[in-house]
Design a protein that fits this description.
This protein has 98 residues and is an alpha+beta fold. 54% of the residues lie in helices and 17% in strands.
């Protein structure tokens, strides 16, 4: 357990410290990336998305439509940029559409 600080901390600072202490950032990034994908892509793409997984710095997206997969493959760099902007930090460096 971490030492208790006698100084007053804001809730956001306390949560950041908790996440860093318990090494929870990777798990939170996975959840945040899935939410960012759902928000940015909209219902049209989400209806054909079967899974979104983040492993290291690569985002694996499983799609049930080969036509949609081909269309999205043309804009991979833009999708990566948009997702990283939504997340507020550079988490994704590679996008794999399956």
């Amino acid at each position: 357990m971490a030492k208790r600080n006698n100084e007053n901390l804001s809730i956001s600072d306390a949560l950041k410290e908790f996440v860093e202490t318990n090494r929870l950032e990777k798990g939170l990034n996975k959840v945040n990336v899935a939410e960012a994908w759902a928000n940015l892509m909209g219902n049209g793409v989400n209806n054909y998305t079967t899974s979104v997984n983040l492993e290291r710095e690569t985002l694996y997206v499983q799609l049930s439509s080969s036509v949609l997969r081909e269309e999205l493959s043309y804009g991979k760099a833009k999708i990566i940029t948009m997702l990283n902007e939504e997340l507020g930090k550079e988490i994704i460096k590679k996008l794999v559409l399956r």
